[in-house]
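I would love for you to help me understand the pair of lines that follows before we discuss the fold together.
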Amino acid sequence: YPFFIAEPEKAIVDFLYLNLFNFSEDDVNIFRES
């Protein structure tokens, strides 16, 4: 993904956002299971 190299700051923000989104999905799944 060239934009990761061209825009490192954006790549970091996107990476953190995706991680937070994934954690949120995990929290929802745990909530549904319980």
In short: The two ends are 39 Å apart (CA to CA). The first helix runs from residue 2 to 6. The chain has two helices and no strands.
